[in-house]
Design brief:
It is built from 13 helices and two strands. The protein is an all-alpha fold. The protein is globular. The two termini are 38 Å apart.
Length: 276
């Protein structure tokens, strides 16, 4: 994560750290910590955007929290890939995702900024194809508040992002223009056949595994399944924003499975999409 201060802080267990670790115990605890949370978000935005000594106030400009929270969410998944299923990364993702819900409840501007980004991603092909990989992943993590009502299946939600990750693979390995979206969703047949027939490109395996692990986090933590933002926030608070033992176990299994992805069939089976 991003350092908040030059000095190193000592935990009660005499461990040193210089990063901000958001711990959300319940709504009462979180609301008392709002000034600290807002300050931390402002400092991280300053560092992330390299704005020198300028100070930023989240209450005055809630939109600055969007890239910070998205970056923290993606950072938890990236560390998960590097740390071989270290459970603290799952815990961190839960807590940062609770901050996403918090800002969505506090600031209409925060939600509108995310929904504008998402709408542009879905409707503007040129914009979508010019996104860098990091921006693509960060938008995926923000899906919880990207649309007002989350209806339809996991496949319906996933296809725009799945199309895009396949386009990235094609452009990286074959240097071709990938015309992909059909109105009904899914790939154009000739492109799909070309991609799948060649096997999983070795030099893009890391990209595929990152997307697969991101799908797991988004599906089991971010996807609201018809629940309101308020309802999901209350569910998090009931359990002190901690993953259940079952989710810890599923996370470990998912981490092992991602590392064993060696084919397109492995990939599609893991993300829960019928193998084309």
């Amino acid at each position: 994560m991003i350092s908040l201060a030059e000095e190193v802080t000592i935990t009660p267990f005499n461990d040193e750290f210089d990063t901000w670790i958001p711990i959300w115990i319940n709504s009462s605890h979180g609301l008392r910590a709002l000034p600290t949370i807002d300050k931390a978000i402002g400092i991280m935005y300053q560092k992330q955007m390299e704005k020198g000594k300028f100070s930023f106030n989240v209450a005055e400009n809630p939109k600055i929290a969007v890239p910070v929270i998205a970056s923290l969410l993606h950072g938890s998944v990236s560390k998960s890939i590097l740390d071989f299923g270290y459970l603290e990364n799952l815990h961190m993702y839960f807590n940062v995702h609770r901050l996403l819900l918090l800002y969505a409840q506090r600031f209409p501007e925060f939600i509108s900024d995310i929904r504008d980004r998402y709408h542009k991603f879905i409707t503007d092909k040129d914009h979508r194809e010019n996104l860098i990989v990091l921006e693509f992943y960060e938008l995926f993590h923000l899906h919880t508040v990207a649309i007002d009502v989350q209806e339809g299946s996991w496949n319906d939600m996933l296809w725009p992002f799945l199309n895009e990750i396949i386009r990235l693979l094609v452009t990286r390995t074959k240097k071709v223009n990938f015309r992909k979206h059909k109105k009904s969703g899914g790939f154009e047949d000739e492109i799909l056949e070309d991609v799948l027939s060649t096997g999983l490109p070795t030099k893009t395996t890391g990209l595929i595994k990152m997307f697969a692990m991101t799908c797991w986090f988004v599906k089991y933590i971010c996807w609201r399944k018809g629940r309101s933002i308020l309802m999901l926030a209350k569910c998090r608070d009931i359990f002190n924003c901690l993953p259940s033992r079952e989710m810890y176990a599923e996370y470990r299994k998912a981490d092992d499975a991602v590392r064993e992805i060696k084919s397109w069939e492995d990939f599609f089976n893991f993300i829960g999409v019928i193998v084309p």
